């Protein structure tokens, strides 16, 4: 990853209901040491944390919540996959101790106050989860499909409505595409996955995707569902359908190849990680804020620019210092190699690179 900081991010709307529940299960991470390489003694940690947000992070958070109990039996982490927008709203209001979000805090959000943060302290974004977004489909008789940014933008904006449309056919020579209507399935809630998806099509097919990148799906087309699991459920009962979904939730759905430059590229966590490594950190934010400006036009071999970076959002300093120490301890575990490798196995995500992991650990260490 490049060290320099560039640009700023646009304001992101937030909405959603507060629903907090535990998703942890006692699996993964049982080989981790009770003392981290950072020097944190997990065995001294005790208490309960409430997290809310990204449904893409759901599997990873369940893995981490279970894993930390193997090294810190007194810690309970309850994480509710309410969606990124709802998670940030819950964190800002004080209803959650930390948020999971597939979109970093906006400048507008950072200009406000945070209920759990100490006076004059802001929140910071710490990358904890990197995952490719799949263009997943379920089409009768079609098991191989290649799409580019323009066809994806055309389909999801409602401009391409048939599977045998000439633009799709041109990318799929020899594939028997049915003369069937395309059913588009998209997120209904404020979604960081939608934000990342719309950033990709806007950057690469702005003449087709004419709406600004947003957490809210902007077109009146197809069917909608809440959360990653809701989208997966809607696809299971649909026919001739297509969606964008975090790869961890794609299940048995077929996945399209993506034209990256001149190459039809298969989805991979390694390809997603490569794009993140090629990207820069956003400028003009707190020193320990690691919001990433993803290079959506990366055409390197194997790159998958339809990627999301999901963050843990925490106070730089908490009003309650004990809560701050607990959040710090948990996130120290989350960015550790053991936790990252466990999540990569369970969620098909990419573990943080050594360089990014070191930066994330430094940011976590600054939490008070």
UniProtKB/TrEMBL annotation:
Residues annotated as signal peptide: 1-28
One GO term describing the cellular component: ATP-binding cassette (ABC) transporter complex
UniProt xrefs under InterPro entries: ABC_phos-bd_PstS, PBP_domain, Phosphate-bind_PstS
Record Pfam families: PBP_like_2 (PF12849)
Start and end residues of each PBP domain: 45-337
Alphabetically ordered keywords of this record: Phosphate transport, Signal, Transport
Binding site for phosphate: 54-56, 84, 102, 191-193
GO biological processes: phosphate ion transmembrane transport
Gene3D superfamilies: Periplasmic binding protein-like II
One Gene Ontology molecular-function label: phosphate ion binding
Keyword Signal: yes
Family that this chain belongs to: Belongs to the PstS family.
UniProt-recorded name of the protein: Phosphate-binding protein
Species for this entry: Curtobacterium pusillum
Lineage per the UniProt record: Bacteria, Bacillati, Actinomycetota, Actinomycetes, Micrococcales
């Amino acid at each position: 990853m490049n060290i320099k900081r560039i640009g700023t991010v646009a304001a992101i709307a937030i909405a959603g209901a507060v629903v907090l529940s535990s998703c942890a299960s006692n699996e993964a991470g049982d080989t981790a040491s009770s003392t981290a390489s950072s020097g944190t003694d997990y065995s001294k940690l005790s208490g309960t944390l409430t997290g809310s947000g990204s449904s893409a992070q759901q599997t990873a958070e369940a893995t981490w919540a279970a894993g930390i109990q193997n090294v810190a039996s007194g810690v309970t982490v309850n994480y509710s996959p309410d969606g990124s927008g709802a998670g940030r709203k819950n964190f800002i209001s004080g209803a959650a101790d930390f948020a999971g979000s597939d979109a970093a805090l906006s400048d507008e959000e950072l200009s406000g106050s945070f209920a759990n943060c100490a006076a004059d302290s802001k929140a910071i974004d710490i990358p904890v989860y990197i995952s490719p977004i799949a263009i997943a489909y379920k089409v009768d008789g079609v098991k191989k499909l290649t799409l580019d940014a323009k066809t994806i933008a055309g389909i999801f904006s409602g401009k391409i409505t048939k599977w045998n449309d000439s633009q799709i056919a041109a990318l799929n020579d020899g594939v028997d595409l049915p003369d069937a209507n395309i059913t588009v399935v998209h997120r209904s809630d404020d979604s960081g996955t939608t934000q990342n998806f719309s950033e990709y099509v806007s950057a690469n097919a702005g003449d087709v995707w004419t709406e600004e990148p947003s957490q809210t799906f902007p077109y009146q087309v197809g069917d909608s569902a809440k959360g990653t699991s809701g989208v997966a459920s809607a696809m299971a009962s649909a026919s001739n359908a297509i969606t964008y979904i975090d790869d961890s939730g794609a299940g048995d759905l077929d996945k399209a190849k993506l034209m990256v430059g001149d190459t039809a590229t298969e989805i991979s966590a390694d390809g997603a990680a490569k794009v993140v490594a090629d990207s820069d950190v956003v400028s003009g934010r707190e020193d320990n804020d690691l919001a990433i400006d993803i290079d959506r036009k990366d055409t390197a071999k194997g790159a998958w620019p339809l990627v999301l970076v999901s963050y843990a959002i925490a106070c730089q300093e908490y009003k309650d210092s004990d809560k701050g120490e607990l959040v710090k301890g948990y996130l120290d575990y989350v960015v550790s190699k053991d936790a990252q490798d466990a999540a990569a196995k369970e969620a098909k995500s990419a573990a943080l690179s050594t360089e990014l992991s070191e930066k994330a650990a430094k940011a976590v260490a600054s939490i008070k």
